[in-house]
């Protein structure tokens, strides 16, 4: 009889103005949002990616222009800003790739559990940020 009189849990929507500051999104939620953001970033910067590829492989002279973009900038854009945009593209590619492999693995092996979701999300975040830092250090000439 006590089961029938127990109060059922109450679920409510999150109020964006009052609850977002206290709401803790789980790691899998962050990976999901960042997966979409990285895909959108790569799509929006696709003309830049095509220009980078075209400039780097057309000829030796165009490769020098490409190299000069990283040394002195392009037009009114300074080199450090150009490098930051490329670093954002590096992160977007790495995060999207690793998160995509995570999703494919979960789909292929039915590895859908709360524990695996959290663990694989943390691994995805650490791997994408770590690889971005390593490649960013190379891009900015630290090694």
Task: Summarize this structure as a short list of keywords or feature phrases.
6 helices
List the helices and strands and how they pair.
Blueprint (H helix, E strand, L loop, with lengths): L1 H4 L21 H18 L1 H12 L2 H13 L6 H31 L4 H26 L4
Helix pairs in contact: 2-5, 2-6, 3-4, 4-5, 5-6
Describe this entry's structure for a reader.
The chain is mainly α and 143 residues long. It has one domain (26-139): Fumarate reductase/succinate dehydrogenase, transmembrane subunit (3 helical TM bundles of succinate and fumarate reductases, Up-down Bundle). It has helices spanning 2-5, 27-44, 46-57, 60-72, 79-109, 114-139. The longest helix is centred in the middle third of the chain and has 31 residues, at 79-109.
Could you give a short description of this structure?
With 143 residues, the protein is mostly helical. The chain has helices spanning 2-5, 27-44, 46-57, 60-72, 79-109, 114-139.
Please tell me the total number of domains.
Answer: 1
Number of strands: 0
Name the CATH class: Mainly Alpha
Coarse shape: elongated
CATH architecture: Up-down Bundle
- The string of secondary-structure elements, in order, is HHHHHH
For this structure, the CATH topology is 3 helical TM bundles of succinate and fumarate reductases
Taking the sheet with the most strands, its summary is: none
Radius of gyration: 22 Å
What structural class should be given to the helix and strand makeup?
Answer: mainly alpha
**Low-pLDDT ranges:** none
What helical percentage do the residues reach? Answer: over 70%
Write the CATH homologous superfamily. Answer: Fumarate reductase/succinate dehydrogenase, transmembrane subunit
Give the CA-CA distance, first to last residue.
71 Å
């Amino acid at each position: 009889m006590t089961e029938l009189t127990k109060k059922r849990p109450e679920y409510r929507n999150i109020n964006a103005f009052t609850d977002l500051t206290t709401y803790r999104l789980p790691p899998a939620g962050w990976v999901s949002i960042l997966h979409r953001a990285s895909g959108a970033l790569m799509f929006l910067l696709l003309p830049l990616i095509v220009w980078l590829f075209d400039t780097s492989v057309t000829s030796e002279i165009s490769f020098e222009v490409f190299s000069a973009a990283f040394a002195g900038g392009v037009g009114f854009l300074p080199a450090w800003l150009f490098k930051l945009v490329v670093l954002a593209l590096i992160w977007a590619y790495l995060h999207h790739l690793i998160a995509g492999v995570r999703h494919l693995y979960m789909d292929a092996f039915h590895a859908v559990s709360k524990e695996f979701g959290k663990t694989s999300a943390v691994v995805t975040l650490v791997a994408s940020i770590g690889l971005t830092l390593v490649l960013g250090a190379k891009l900015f000439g630290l090694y």
